[in-house]
Amino acid sequence: MRSNLKSKQIQRKLERLEKSHTEIELLNQKRKKIHQNQSICQVFTKERRQLIEYNSKLQMDINSYIQELQIIRRNNENLHQEAQKLANHTNEMCSQSNLYKKEQQELQRDIEKLQKDIVLISKTRISKENEYFKECEKLEKTEEKVNEMNKDLKNLENIKNQEVENLRKILKDIKRVQGEINKIRNARKV
Question: Which intervals of the chain form a coiled coil (predicted)?
Fold first, then answer.
């Protein structure tokens, strides 16, 4: 009986030991899993830290790119303004060039008119000279006509002097107009 009791106690102890052993094994497995999980967590933590660093670097790069884009945009705006100024200046220069051309055409017309006037005056002078020579031929025949011829000569001399004066004025005008044309040409070259 006693041995039977002892045997039962031993049996219970063995069962408890086995149960404890099983629990220990389970605990060991759990500990291994925990250790594995900790290793995985460490890897994840490391990767997370790397990702955070990478994200920070990316954010810095993005900020840098944004600043560069803003600078490029400002530069583009400045370039656009400069291009607009240049276009306005070009339009202004074209307008001035057209104005110079018109002025030159007007001056050319004035010169042509003056040249026609000179030709007309020259023809008139030649015509009057021809008349004068005819009169001279007639006046040579008689003394009375010589006196009349002297009067006519004086008149013609006065007319001639007046025409010479007129021609001088016209020449002065031509020189003045020519000077203005040269000024315009020089201004266009600049």
Answer: 55-187
